[in-house]
Design brief:
172 residues, mainly alpha, 7 helices, 80% helix
Length: 172
């Protein structure tokens, strides 16, 4: 997928950008910018996928309120809050910039590692979706939802902890 987004960004360049790319040093700079842009687009895609799951959790919470299940609502809200935190962190994550005089310079290899790290977050979307499926099934069967909600909360805490290591990709 990394190549796909980078290629699509390159293909969208105009004639002037192609002409400017012949200037010494500019091509490397532009390639870094394209990597950052590809990573940003990927993160926004992942955040949208998680947003869809958040909508599902909010629907479950509304249904629980119709049944008057206050303790279940509290648990579902806790899971939704953890999911919202993850979404916000993904949307607002650093794009791998380093200033001219920074001690740590971000090279193309680190930007590629950052992109691959973010790409791995897509797996988390499917795990979250599966757990929300279980919550919906429990709700529909009028079974207690505590167990699948606890599993969802644990999964979201693990994903937030993993996302906290994102900066380590640049520093490694």
């Amino acid at each position: 997928m990394s190549g796909d987004l980078n290629e699509r960004i390159e293909e969208s360049q105009g004639k002037i950008e192609r002409l400017i790319s012949g200037i010494p040093g500019y091509k490397g700079y532009k390639q870094k910018e394209q990597r950052r842009e590809a990573d940003k687009l990927l993160r926004l895609h992942i955040a949208r996928q998680f947003d869809e799951q958040l909508l599902r959790m909010n629907a479950i919470t509304r249904k629980l309120s119709y049944r008057g299940k206050l303790s279940d609502i509290t648990m579902a809200d806790r899971a939704a809050n953890k999911l919202q935190l993850l979404i916000d962190r993904i949307k607002n994550a650093s794009m791998g910039y380093s200033g001219l005089f920074d001690a740590i310079k971000v090279r193309e290899e680190e930007l590629d590692k950052l992109y691959n790290f973010d790409l791995a977050m897509l797996d988390g979307v499917s795990r979250v979706a599966e757990l929300i499926d279980q919550i919906e099934q429990h709700y529909a069967s009028e079974l207690p939802i505590a167990e699948p909600v606890d599993l969802l909360i644990a999964e979201l805490e693990a994903q937030n902890a993993t996302f906290s290591t994102r900066q380590d990709v640049i520093l490694a």
